[in-house]
């Protein structure tokens, strides 16, 4: 008698393909119907119940008028409390400003703090829209190359220090936890970066949107919490959208450490850079204040899934290098040892009918890499892994 399949975690493992394909979001809507998507960084899980309840209450009140926020949205104080409670960082609510998403946060800070042709250090590989932003804004990219070691992905701080000095770098964009490798930088590593920033008087733009997706025993440390000097030179970017699957609410926050930069931002014409929707604020506030139970279940599911990806890749594709992510829901697979002779993204799509992301859009050192989004149900993930391993293993002895 065949044993019954483990039903998994309710609310996470009971999603089905018909529901996923009926959604209008780009992840499932754009690919052909026979393709399983694991590319764009959206989760496949339903919206957290506390967020649904908060949004429904606002709609039921028929309350979609102009909000009365003379001192900014309530999300400013919610963010500051959350940083103190979760990370021991005394962030200041009056230094928080709302934007529509993290890309806009980054672009606004770069626009205000740097000029055409200025050098900006950034980790590579990296989130493609960040790299595209730097190119489009004509900022000189100073690459901080992540190195694949037996202990995982690491940074060469001596090389970074030298590159920053030689380029006359003005700012450093730090993505921690890191997309796409899943690294969570330690206190010592962050201290090395802080010393470099102090030595060369760098503005640090710290993207911490994946902080809520960190797996024990790893611990997220806000860069601005390291010291008074770090606090005064750091702009922190984050949002509830990644950790709570709320990308479409279009709401993010920026915490300004430098007095001069905050004053410059506030001197701009009102609404020049847009305003956030009250519904985005309501959704983000509900996630951060009432979503902890849902989020604990989420991390349990994602922890299981990251281990499943690592186990299957290690066993069935032993030539492919993959480190167990310390955060995020993204696997970063090095297929170069397979000598495919073509883009692995194209190979997996053609042979396995799975859409992944990867390649040069993540940086000059990302050719031959695949990024696999494992934030999906147990069944869908198993189907994805079966197709991916078959597509990469065929004719390669994997």
From TrEMBL:
Which co-factor is required? pyridoxal 5'-phosphate
Which EC number applies?
4.4.1.13
Domain Aminotransferase class I/classII large, residue spans: 42-388
**Which domain of life, per UniProt?**
Bacteria
Signal peptide range in chain numbering: none
Keyword tags:
Aminotransferase, Lyase, Pyridoxal phosphate, Transferase
Q: Name one GO molecular function term.
A: cysteine-S-conjugate beta-lyase activity
Which top EC class is given?
A: lyase
List, alphabetically, the SUPFAM superfamilies matched.
PLP-dependent transferases (SSF53383)
Q: Which PANTHER family match?
A: CYSTATHIONINE BETA-LYASE-RELATED, PROTEIN MALY
* Family assignment from sequence similarity: Belongs to the class-II pyridoxal-phosphate-dependent aminotransferase family. MalY/PatB cystathionine beta-lyase subfamily.
What is the name listed in the Swiss-Prot or TrEMBL entry for this protein?
Answer: cysteine-S-conjugate beta-lyase
The upper taxonomy is:
Bacteria, Bacillati, Actinomycetota, Actinomycetes, Kitasatosporales
């Amino acid at each position: 008698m065949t044993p019954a399949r483990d039903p998994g975690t309710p609310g996470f493992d009971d999603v089905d393909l018909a529901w996923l394909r009926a959604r209008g979001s780009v992840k499932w809507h754009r690919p052909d119907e026979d393709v399983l998507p694991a590319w764009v960084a959206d989760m496949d899980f339903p919206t957290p119940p506390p967020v649904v309840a908060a949004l429904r209450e606002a709609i039921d009140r028929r309350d979609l008028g102009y909000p009365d926020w003379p001192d900014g949205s309530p999300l400013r104080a919610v963010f500051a409390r959350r940083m103190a409670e979760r990370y021991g960082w005394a962030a200041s609510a009056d230094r928080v400003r709302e934007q529509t998403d993290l890309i806009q946060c980054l672009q606004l800070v770069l626009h205000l703090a740097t000029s055409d042709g200025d050098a900006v250090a950034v980790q590579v590989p990296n989130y493609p829209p960040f790299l595209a932003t730097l190119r489009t804004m004509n900022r000189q990219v100073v690459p901080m190359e992540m190195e694949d070691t037996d202990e995982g992905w690491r940074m060469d701080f001596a090389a970074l220090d030298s590159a920053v000095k030689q380029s006359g770098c003005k700012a450093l964009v730090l993505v921690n936890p890191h997309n796409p490798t899943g690294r969570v930088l330690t206190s010592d590593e962050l201290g090395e970066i802080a010393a470099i920033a102090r030595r060369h008087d760098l503005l640090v733009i710290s993207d911490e949107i994946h902080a809520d997706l960190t797996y024990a025993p790893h611990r997220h440390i806000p860069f601005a919490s390291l010291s008074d000097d770090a606090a005064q030179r750091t702009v922190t970017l984050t949002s509830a959208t990644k950790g709570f699957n709320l990308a479409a609410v279009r709401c993010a926050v920026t915490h300004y450490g430098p007095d001069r930069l905050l004053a410059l931002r506030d001197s701009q014409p009102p609404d020049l850079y847009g305003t956030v929707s009250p519904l985005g604020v309501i959704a983000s506030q509900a996630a951060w204040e009432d979503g902890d139970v849902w989020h604990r279940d989420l991390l349990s599911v994602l922890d299981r899934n990251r281990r499943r990806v690592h186990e299957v890749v290690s066993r069935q594709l032993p030539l492919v290098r993959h480190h167990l992510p310390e955060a995020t829901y993204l696997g970063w697979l090095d297929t170069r040892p397979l000598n495919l002779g073509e883009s692995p993204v194209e190979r997996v799509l053609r042979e396995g009918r799975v859409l992944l992301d990867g390649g040069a859009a993540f940086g000059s050192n990302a050719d031959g890499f695949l990024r696999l989004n494992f934030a999906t149900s147990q069944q869908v993930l198993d189907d994805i892994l079966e197709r991916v391993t078959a597509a990469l293993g065929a004719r390669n002895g994997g």
